[in-house]
């Protein structure tokens, strides 16, 4: 492709466009970060509410035990009252010695004391469960407040992102023309990358299928099923098994699907919804959020892109901090990756190396 014409005026306009896009990308990253934080608070709130429900069940059971113990104590008291005039006298008068008399009196005292202790023990258990319920309810109140704050922060960033998008949309005609020309170029490159990646993924998938068929025909033991396990982000080359090129084959069928935050169906995907859904199609279960997906499978550090295979999950973090994961995609080979970028940008293939060079937010990959 011939180089685009460049003049001081065009270069100045390009810099203006690049600056506006950089601000939009930063705001989009922060929006994803806030959404991840909100998802985590919602998850914690749901767990606390489940614990409250369990605790209330425990409290109902403890109260039932308390009523039973109190009824037993009451029945004991009534029985001793009704029979005490005769039976108790017979018990005491039937003694053969003073020591026997004392022994029988102590026995009666122990019967009453044991019933009373039982009631006290059950009351203590009820109090403990009630205290646990109060603690959980306070935590629920705190999490509701945190959820409200997280929603406010997310809306603030999303409003800023929308404002920046409006600013970019309102650039003058010359800037808009330059942006359209650049987007057209990127679209053609993405289509070419997608075509090459799909061909390569299909070739790899066919090769693996042939290898499996060969193992079956020769009676070789089948490869055991793989289950994604947390790896604590420890790099161990010996844990790197075969890739999953079939993920790329499946993922390529969703090119052009619109970005929808929280989306995890072909009606619309967000970044982790796409990876979660596509991996499910090949029978591998991974967590739903990008942060949790980063914790499963064999870890590949960011300086070892030479080890990447089609199907590996590639991760990006705000300011390059692995504790602030906000985006994930699927490596398709040829230094490209498939992902659901952000609002207004559908599922597409882009250059991983270009993003690393341009934004420096790549923090490594995993192979589920």
Explain this structure:
With 368 residues, the chain is of the alpha+beta class. The protein folds into two domains: 8-169, Helix Hairpins, CATH 1.10.287; 191-220 and 228-367, endopeptidase domain like (from Nostoc punctiforme) (endopeptidase fold (from Nostoc punctiforme), Alpha-Beta Complex), CATH 3.90.1720.10. The protein is 63% helix and 10% strand. The protein contains seven helices and eight strands, in the order H-H-H-H-E-E-H-H-E-E-E-E-E-H-E. Helix 1 (8-93) packs antiparallel against helix 2 (98-169) and helix 1 (8-93) crosses helix 3.
Shape: globular
CATH superfamily of the largest domain: endopeptidase domain like (from Nostoc punctiforme)
CATH architecture of the largest domain: Alpha-Beta Complex
Residue share in helix? 55-70%
Catalogue the unreliable spans. 1-6, 83-89, 221-231
Order of helices and strands: HHHHEEHHEEEEEHE
- Alpha plus pi helix count: 7
Q: Would you report the number of β strands?
A: 8
Number of domains: 2
The CATH topology of the largest domain:
endopeptidase fold (from Nostoc punctiforme)
Structural class: alpha+beta
Distance between the termini: 38 Å
CATH class of the largest domain equals Alpha Beta
- In round numbers, the mean pLDDT is 77
- Tell me the β content: 5-15%
Q: In which order are the strands of the major sheet placed? A: 3-8-4-5-6-7
**Biggest sheet descriptor:** 6 strands, antiparallel
Quaternary state of the chains: single chain
